[in-house]
Amino acid sequence: MQDILIVVDMQNDFIDGSLGTAEAVGIVPRVAEKIRSFPGAVLFTRDTHEPDYLNTQEGRKLPVVHCVKGRPGWEIREELAALCKTEPIDKPTFGSVRLGELLLAMDREEPIASVTLIGLCTDICVISNALLVKAFLPEVPVIVDAACCAGVTPESHKNALAAMKMCQIAVENE
Question: At a CB cut-off of 8 Å and minimum separation 6, what does 5 contact?
């Protein structure tokens, strides 16, 4: 049995770039420590947009250019990228079907005991991917480490944690 850690979108634009927050900056050391101490496989996701982002549905609803492929804001935070042993999973939207498919394949090779998610933003991409993992692997415990997540606002972070608990996702370190 294997445990999986998913590091969601720990990218410059979400930490201290165009959509950054003080809370996001504050979790970086805890995220680095969690990655270093995690006993299983670690996967990273990377929010990935094209230069025409503002013309997409997401871009019209969130008109802040961010995470454009190849630009500095798209990159995983330097100290965390140094801990990344596999190519990040690029995702064009909040949740990643590719991540779900990869986890299914990994589970076939060696059963997954648990999936833990950390990263940004609790209320958008973390919750989307946690629910996606729950849909792909309904019998595998899904865990979110709240101390290693930050939301768009502290209030929306708390709301997302409460919503995940209602969907049988374990929330640790609130």
Answer: 34, 35, 38, 40, 41, 42, 43, 115, 116, 117, 118
